[in-house]
Please model this.
Amino acid sequence: MTWEDLIQSELEKAYFQKLVQFLKEEDHKNLVLPTKDKRLACFKLTPYEHVKVVIIGQDPYHNIGQAHGLSFSVESGDYPPSLKNIYQEYCDDLNMPYPQTGNLSSWAKQGVLLLNTVLTVVVHQPMSHQKKGWEGFTLEVVKKINEKIEPVVFILWGAHAQSFIPYINDQKHLILKAPHPSPLSAHRGFFGSKPFTRTNAFLIKHHQTPIDWKL
Model:
């Protein structure tokens, strides 16, 4: 099984064909982020067979120069508020210095699938591509990961990400739940949730290489 296999099978379905047509029209009339070449970046950097951890976001950052196809990651520039809070927890959990980059590609290359539920957005219009078909696709992605023989860690921050729980076998995989790292909710239990060390403890327990979280 590869991501290409999954994408090809979904392309045959009516919902995905509608999504493709919608994106063609949107690209013609709006500035859609991330750029076409980066929309499936999470799958290119984290092949199916390498997935050990999944971090589910909602939709891409909507400011220019930020979104590059990985949830919570920015290609360059200022860190959005949620990423700042992730980094605060990162420092506390791992006892590491504050990261000098917002680009999480190094995590993705180690098997951390940084998956947004919706993979595109119109510039400066958050949630503008909700309910256009992406949700059906990402649900299929989660279902396929759930089928993996090797145990996977699902890091689910906030109610949106936690809506995938019914599709995850928690007898095999580890589900780490916490409030979203947004400034609106991070103080309700995101801080102190220790997702990074708990992930690595689980991977080590199941004889998998832990993630080198250092940025």
Q: What stands out?
A: The beta strands are 32-33, 53-57, 112-116, 121-122, 153-157, 174-178. The radius of gyration is 17 Å. The CA atoms of residues 154 and 175 lie 5 Å apart. The first helix runs from residue 3 to 11.
